[in-house]
Amino acid sequence: MGPASWWRCALLALLLVTPAAHSALSQLPQAPEPELRALLQRTVAESESFQDRFDAEVWLLDMSTRLQRYVPRADDRLTLLRLVHREASKAGLKPDLVLALIHAESRFDRFAISSVGAQGMMQVMPFWKAELGRPQDNLTDNATNLRYGCTILSYYLKKENGDLSRALARYNGSLGKNEYPARVIGIWQDIWYVKP
Predict the structure, then answer these.
(1) In the CATH scheme, what architecture does the domain 34-192 have?
(2) For the chain, which residues make up each domain, given as ranges?
(3) CB neighbours of 116 closer than 8 A, spacing ≥ 6?
(4) Close Cβ partners of 29 (under 8 Å, ≥ 6 residues apart)
(5) Using one digit for the tens of pLDDT, what is the confidence trace for 130-183?
(6) Cα–Cα distance for residue pair 69/82, rounded to 1 Å
């Protein structure tokens, strides 16, 4: 029995015991799509993103100033920002959008764990490690978490033909609801957005 099946059975048993467990059942991850699994396998197996040194300095300084209230140490901020820029760029995402998603998901806490078990800054579900045959991956490692999270969001954005609200809802497991996408987009526009 795979991890997703096990969780479904466990929550179904809870559902029979407590009515409150019904809402938890709707939060269960769906079986991953084979195309997304293959994309994650390729991306996770790969291991810089700025084309121009001046652009790098401007972006890093701007974002470091914005990030300071969440990540106090300058070297930690710059390390994180380089990782975000690299992984977002590899996945074809705007780095400032990824910062907004991280802000919404974990407020930049690499050790964050959600009520359904999602881990790290981008709140990646641990079943992905088993799906990819990579049980050794540490989802609290920022580089690993960003690689997984950016790949997943990019996949959903392509699947939804560029519809950011629907892609964010898929990422969050709330397709059909607007609260989560509106929150991420609001944070992006209010705090992290960078004009092209």
Answers:
(1) Orthogonal Bundle (1.10)
(2) 1-31, 34-192
(3) 24, 27, 28, 125
(4) 4, 7, 125, 127, 173
(5) 988 999 999 999 999 999 999 999 999 999 999 999 999 999 999 999 999 999
(6) 18
Instruction: Scan for tokens 């930690």, then name that residue.
Output: 76
Instruction: List the one residue out of 79, 81, 91, 188 whose CA is nearest residue 147.
Output: 91
Separation of alpha carbons 104 and 122, rounded Å: 9
- Contacts by residues 79-86 (CB-CB < 8 Å, ≥ 24 positions apart): 79/142, 80/108, 80/142, 82/48, 83/142, 83/143, 83/146, 84/146, 85/49, 85/50, 85/59, 85/60, 86/48, 86/49
